[in-house]
Amino acid sequence: MRAHPHTQGLGMASAAARKRLLDELRQWGIADERVLGALERVPRHEFLDDALKSRAYENNALPIGLSQTISQPYIVALMTQALLRDGVPRKVLEIGTGSGYQTAVLAELVPAVFSVERIKHLSETARRRLSALGYQNILFSYSDGANGWPSYAPYDGILVTAATERVPDALLEQLGVGGRLIVPVGPTGSQVLKRLRRTATGYESHDLCDVSFVPLLAGRA
Ligand code: SAH
């Protein structure tokens, strides 16, 4: 049998580790098979430096340089599951491209992803990596995500992968009616992952769980 191109280089160790990770996500309550399927397909080791590739299928956040981290697989799954709960959004805005791992998971599931990153090196690296992996439904912007990405608004879903003390107005405005916004809110050490839904008259808000994200910072770097 021919190896799947995404697992080449890590071989069987990777296949077993991926299966263990999927089992763990199920045990932790991720039940959406679409989301589990996407996490099974995306080669997380491709988003890490060589020294960390062997740990790619552990259920942990890991450093990606420049004081940033690739999100924990469980949190990626949880956020994606919350985003898809009322149906598959057509257009999703992601704030905080980082390694591009969450971006790839989204691109597996929705028709179009718009991903914003404030650190130039990360944005460019993620763009190259996701293009090499064959994704064609992602647009990248090197800019401050607190402004959203007005040109393509409104979005059916917005997912923020850095924590903010106050949800930026631009993101609330660029969310279409019926759309969902998944965002970690609060200061470092005391953040809650929230799911907001825009209705015809306002926003409904639900807390999902306590989380620990790097902060949403202003401006470009
Ligand atoms: N989903 C990413 C998580 C990266 S960590 C992954 O799994 O790899 C959060 C990212 O948000 C970092 O890359 C950080 O630079 C970025 N970020 C922080 N503030 C931002 C802002 N205002 N606009 C855009 N990106 C921002």
Describe the structure.
The protein is of the alpha/beta class. The protein has a single domain (12-211), classed as Rossmann fold. Helix content is 30%, strand content 26%. The chain has six helices and nine strands. It has a seven-stranded mixed beta sheet. A two-stranded antiparallel sheet has the order 1-2. Strand 8 and strand 9 (203-211) form a beta hairpin. Helix 2 (33-41) packs across helix 4 (101-109). It is globular, with a radius of gyration of 16 Å. The N and C termini lie far apart (46 Å). The site of S-adenosyl-L-homocysteine has 24 residues, from strand 2, helix 4 and strand 4. Residues 64, 68-71, 95-96, 98-99, 101-102, 116-119, 122, 144-146, 161-162, 214, 216-217 line the site of S-adenosyl-L-homocysteine (SAH).
Order of strands across the biggest sheet? Answer: 5-4-3-6-7-8-9
Structural class: alpha/beta
Number of structural units classed as domains: 1
> What percent strand?
25-35%
Number of strands: 9
Query: Which hetero compounds are present in the coordinates?
Result: S-adenosyl-L-homocysteine
Largest sheet: 7 strands, mixed
Do you know the CATH architecture? Answer: 3-Layer(aba) Sandwich
Supply Rg.
16 Å
Taken from the alpha-carbon principal axes, the silhouette is: globular
- Overall mean pLDDT: 94
CATH level 3 topology: Rossmann fold
Helix-strand sequence: HHEEHEHEHEEHEEE
* Poorly predicted runs of 5 or more residues: none
Q: Gap between N and C termini, in Å?
A: 46 Å
- Number of helices, counting only DSSP H or I runs of 4 residues or more: 6
